[in-house]
Amino acid sequence: ASTDFRETKYTFHGPIERPKNFPLVDGGESISDGFQGVLEILYEICFHATIEEDSVTTEKAAVLSELQLRNTVEFRSDKAFIEKFHGETPIPTRYPIGLEESVKRFTADDVRRFYDKFYVPGNMELYCVGSFDKKGALEVIKSIFEKAERKEVPDCVSHRLEEYHRFDRIEPERKFATFNHNLLSQIVVCFAVKVPSYKVEVFQHLRINLVDSICGSVFEERMDGIYKSMGNPIFTEFGWGYDDSHREGCAANVLTISCEPADFKEAVVLLLRESRKLCRYGILEGEMRRALHMLLKSLRQDAEQADTKQSSSIISDLINESELGDVYQSAQAQYDLFQKASRTIDVETVNKRVRAVFAGLGIEKDESLTPENGIDGMVGCGDCVVFVSGPRRNLGKITLDEINELVKLSAESEIEAPADIDLPEYLFWEQPERVDFVEVSNAQKLGLEVVKPEMAVETQSGAWFRALPNGVRGAFHVTEYDAKHFILRVNVHGGSASMADEVESAALSLGLLTMFSGGAAGYPSHVMSKYMSTHNIDLEVAVGFESARLDMWAGTAGHGLKRAFETLFAYFTNPIWDTSSFERARKERMLLFEELQHEIERRVQEAAYLNLVSGDKRFPTSSKKCLRRIDFDDLQQTIMRTLDPAKMEVILVGDFDPKEAEMHFASYFGAIRGVGVINPPRTIPDVRLSSNEDVTKLSVYDQENRAVVGFTGHVRGRWSMTDLDLQTLRTSYTPPKHADK
Questions:
Q1: For residue 652, what is the enclosing H or E element?
Q2: So what's the pLDDT on residue 531?
Q3: Which of these, 387, 385, 369, 368, lies nearest to 377 by C-alpha position?
Q4: b/e map of 186-221 (b: 16 or more CB within 10 Å)?
Q5: pLDDT tens string 47-58
Q6: I need a surface site. Which of 176, 541, 667, 740 has the fewest CB within 10 A?
Q7: How many CB atoms lie within 10 A of CB 462?
Q8: For residue 522, what are the CA distances in angstroms to 290, 527, 574, 577?
Q9: Are 592 and 543 in contact (CB under 8 A)?
């Protein structure tokens, strides 16, 4: 069960068929099936719940505990924004969790009065999703729920929330607000304009949604390009959204940017200047083509996976679109309609919408906008809320006047017309005759004959294994859960435990991030980034105790499997190591460490891990001091030493052609060569697990006095054991033959 501003939802997951030994009800009559049983339970909860004082007392304790757990700094920041943005509505005073004093005061009689008033048939909606017979399901629903007594539907705020919103000029005191707390490490600036809710009911509405998606994609592409062109970026995150919310009873046009306090002014001016550029000059033909291609490909993948989509995901979409008043569409219907809509738009159409949306946000209303207009001129009708959150030590100086100055500065700065980036066309469109963008030596000669016969293993589970002469091992499994999609994981054995010290451990993590955020195969980072995003290839790297891991998600359509393997091959064999990617990655890691110092939950976890490994500093998040000690050349050496084919394990799971997968595995990973001995052998410390029962105490100041307790202990690992573990093992099982070897 969950409660929000406007409703409480009860969600049941259950089997369609009645399980064996299902309990009997109604004097011994068995329930006909699981579906009907769930509906009968739901009926009892909705109309015949027993509300006893003991139960209410118990639940009050749980609610008060949840109230404290939720009351994080981020939650308080969100509340501060909502109080300004929705100040004219009841929303700021109707948080679902309630007030502590109210919860403590409630009795079973109070709860029962609320239940009797609002739990009436006319105030409820029933959603059912699953593999049941529709006609039979409707008959069961009717037979159960028609017994409920019809009662008057009560009038309440949630029914009329839209009526409270104002979309004209707002009060001056609500135009600007800040939230400061020393547990926040970055400054976030948000420009938000409230607009009426809209419904997607006809083709024209869906067409507008398509154009808005293109606008957002292009803006993201431009800002991402700026970020990757900087060695020391002046912002960390950005975002633009034009979204409808039934929860809040309105839509919102929101522009945000996050940055370090020292970069605050530059970051805000950059955001506003790029927004003005988009508003003034619009988007380019090439940008629109790439954005449209990405969007349609993503929708096509959703349609391909429709039959394997979980009921819980479908019911969420169904409820959301029903609440908004949208026409519900299946994934296939949505793809077909968007494809049809894509043929009716051009750059001019998109740019009209860009100007309308950003003028509505107030970034640049028209060419007559003057630098003296400030916030009022920026938003035209004065309906923009500017919200800034960040560390207390920095936010005391930020005022509305300073924001106005930054708005003027962005208007005064020269804004040049955008130029499209020079991208190789054949990389971005699905042309079967030219898919390769890397040269693979002996790729066609390698083939399946390179597989070692002794490693050609099939298992009863359906997985099979292969190995290549250079030492790379492969594991494959075809499933039907993700239609025409796959996940490809490369495990490189070693991880932090194979590093000599904390600096080398930090270099491993930083090096992989640098490598895969840079360029490859002669193409710079922005081309590789756009190549992967255009073809919906997602990539993530991580370093653990035992291994470094690279995960890649993609679809098989448009030669997706081949693109995935050759992208990895390009990075493994011909990466472009540039100092900009290195400095950018180092800054990201430093920010991660900075955030860690202000998050008590994560600090507790880090301290616990450090205690368990006897203070070994190779394992926790790398400190700023440690990251500053990493040398660019040494970092490359660490990565080259780590990416040894003999340590690689390729795991491929999904809906793919086995023969094609084996061919690409052999062709690309079979062509990877080891780097040989780079440095003299190093001494690698053993991992020593602690056997004490120390209590580690941490303190992070928060005026709300929140507390976090973590309990940790050892489990037997593959790579290290304590003496106590070894003693236990000797007496708990019979060692296999040749255990001494």
A1: strand 648-654
A2: 86
A3: 369
A4: bbbbbbbbbbebbebeeeeebbbbbbbbbbbbbbeb
A5: 999 999 999 999
A6: 740
A7: 10
A8: 21, 10, 8, 11
A9: no
Confidence of residue 363 (pLDDT cuts 50, 70, 90): low
476-500: average pLDDT: 90
Amino acid type, 348: E
Rounded distance between C-alpha atoms, residue 55 and residue 68, angstroms: 20
* Average pLDDT of span 263-275: 93
Which residues are registered as beta bridge partners of 576? 519
The pLDDT of residue 171 is: 81
Beta pairing, strands 29-30 & 24-25:
antiparallel
Closest to 94 in 3D by CA, of 183, 3, 22, 17:
3
This prediction's pTM: 0.83
3-class secondary structure for 278-340? HHHHCCCHHHHHHHHHHHHHHHHHHHHCHHHCCHHHHHHHHHHHHHHCCCCCCHHHHHHHHHH
Distance CA(213)–CA(211), nearest Å, equals 5
Of residues 139, 245, 159, 236, the one with CA closest to residue 194: 245
Q: What Cα–Cα distance (Å) separates residue 226 from each residue in 14, 288, 322?
A: 49, 18, 39
Query: Residue 454 above 60 pLDDT?
Result: no
Lookup: tokens for 207 = 């067409």
Per-residue pLDDT at 228: 87
Residue given tokens 């490359």 in the structure block: 636
Strand 464-467 with 473-478, pairing: antiparallel
User: What average pLDDT does this structure show over 377-396?
Assistant: 68
* pLDDT at position 626: 93
Contact 567, 214 (CB under 8 A): no
Structure tokens at 726: 């070894």
DSSP one-letter string for 484-512: TEEEEEEEEE-GGGGSSSHHHHHHHHHHH
pLDDT score for 443: 39
Q: Is the pLDDT of residue 282 over 60?
A: yes
Is 349 a residue whose pLDDT tops 50?
yes
Cα 624 to Cα 503: distance, rounded to the nearest angstrom = 11
- Residues ≥6 apart with Cβ < 8 Å to 430: 558, 559
Looking at the predicted structure, is the pLDDT value of residue 88 above 70? yes
Phi, psi of 40 (to 5 degrees): -70, -40
